[in-house]
User: Fold Iron ABC transporter permease from Billgrantia desiderata.
Amino acid sequence: MHGNTAEDGLQQQPVGHGYDRATAASAPAGHWCLAWQSGGARAPCSVLVDRRAFLAALLLLLGLLAASFAYLTMGSSALAPRAVLPALVGRGDLMAVFLVQELRLPRLLAACLTGAAFGVAGCLMQTLARNRLATPGIIGIDNGATAFAVASVIGLGVSLAPPAMALVGATTAAALTFGLAAGGGTRGYRFIVAGIGVGAVFGAITQLLLAKVHIDTANAAYPWTVGSLNARPAGAVTLLAVGLPLGLGTALWLTRALSLMRFSDAVAAGLGLRVSQRRWQVLAVSVLLTGLAVSVAGPVGLVGLIGPEIARSLSSPRGVPVMASALAGALVMVLADLAGRVLLSPIEIPVGIVTAVVGGPWLLWILLRPASRNLA
Assistant:
């Protein structure tokens, strides 16, 4: 490299179509540099890829594919692994086709979508607050979305109402938490304590609503109180399938801002970040994803804690693992729902209970380990 910086190397190395090995040699340590010539552009286009983050995402993707295949084969009626792939395309035994296409595949897709949404929302909130306890479930956003979704089921009884009401509830809970933490912003434990209080109030409202209605109506609203993929509103799943790519794409676009948000506001502003504007954008994406996920599966909040923790432990500490958090959240959700279906089959354990059993000790571990290893 003759003493040149990585940026100088990008300008001096010849770049052709696709990957350029000479340019890659000038990439910073721990990165790959992918460079290409686009159209009639004079200067080459290039992008730096963090090796560890890429490998972590690849590992989580492979794990998710393996878990998804196990999800389709296992259940009260087990399928032979060789029968799953033909059933996906409508071939083979009619019972296998029915089990895969009508029962398990839609539920698997819902698990992947909701897990990814909870994982990304948790990663965003943790980065925003610089605290690994600041997940949507712990700071009350999940409970706010749940209370409004339950109110819509009790009062309206239509499948398209819970998604919209869940978004309103998530927004209301976030606004209340910010208001009660006035002066402390999103940093420190004041924000966490305010969120816990808001979540407790909305949780009590949910229980009060269920106590005042007929038992059949309460049973219809029950999945939104514990977290379950057994009763998935088709309209809510469709909205989440549209909203998740938008939210994930926005979060990836905000990756550089998220990296700077881990510093103090003064440092981030000095590096050119519009702190207030980016903070509201991050919060809006987190609320959107949480509301849509709750409208499908209910408050499975600890996925937003476990998923980002897994992603952070596998990924590079240099960046914010948004994509890895989405994949890890989806993996946790699929495995939790699979465990709920098969452990006591034919009795089904709601996925929210499974994640609570796993996430509770994880939360205690975060609280009890040395403070130097926390974001707070």
